[in-house]
Amino acid sequence: MRIVFRPVPESKKGRNRIHLDLTTASLDDQNQSVSRLVEQGARHIDIGQGPDAPHVVLADPEGNEFCIIGPDNSFLADCGRLGAIVCDGSRQVGYFWSAALGWPLVWDQDEETAIRAPDGTSPFITWGPPVPPKITKNRLHLDIAPPAPGDQRAEVDRLASFGATRIDLGQGDVDRVVMADPDGNEFCVLSPDSEFARDQRPGRQRPER
């Protein structure tokens, strides 16, 4: 799994529907992590979490929200620093992504779902609770790389059979296919020839720049 940051022309509008949860090993680790990130340009924000919340909510220099999770969170206890990719969304969209990625559901209660790679080495991806329909393009989205040897059209057809739809965001003639999941969240199906798709294949490592 790779996180890629790219510049976009649009400014941030409203709270993101996807954010990152970073884990900590102790209260000291949590406090030090918060202090270090604030020194790097993050800021404290209030999204209604309340003063007794065990996590600290921050925004990065562009205003994208993320959480520093306290050490007592047993759900994320065996994760690395990136504990979860947290998505607002319906229970059904969790089922969609479980099928799309082939990752089993590890949580399905109270209108919330979570999936994780079968080998247990990835962060969790979670959804819930349901939220109002989206009105603007998400600033954060997921990309899918077809498995080797790769067939982009077959992958698009497979995802459509699970409830995804092709959409046009004005992307023009590009080698990726833009789709939306059942909640309308955009994602991209990469070309098998794209750099990021090639890097996901066994035995391939991304060259250092």
Using only CA atoms, what is the Rg?
18 Å
SSE ordering: EHEEEEHEEEEHEEEH
Cα end-to-end separation: 19 Å
CATH superfamily of the largest domain: 2,3-Dihydroxybiphenyl 1,2-Dioxygenase, domain 1
Please identify the structural class as seen in this structure.
Answer: alpha+beta
Number of domains: 2
Our count of helices gives: 4
Strand order of the largest sheet: 2-3-4-1-5-8-7-6
Main pleated-sheet profile: 8 strands, mixed
Helix content: 10-25%
Outline the secondary-structure elements.
Layout: E1 18-22, H1 27-39, E2 43-44, E3 56-59, E4 65-68, E5 82-87, H2 91-101, E6 105-109, E7 112-115, E8 124-127, E9 142-144, H3 152-161, E10 165-166, E11 177-180, E12 186-189, H4 195-199
Parallel strand pairs: 1-4, 5-8, 9-12
Antiparallel strand pairs: 1-5, 2-3, 3-4, 6-7, 7-8, 10-11, 11-12
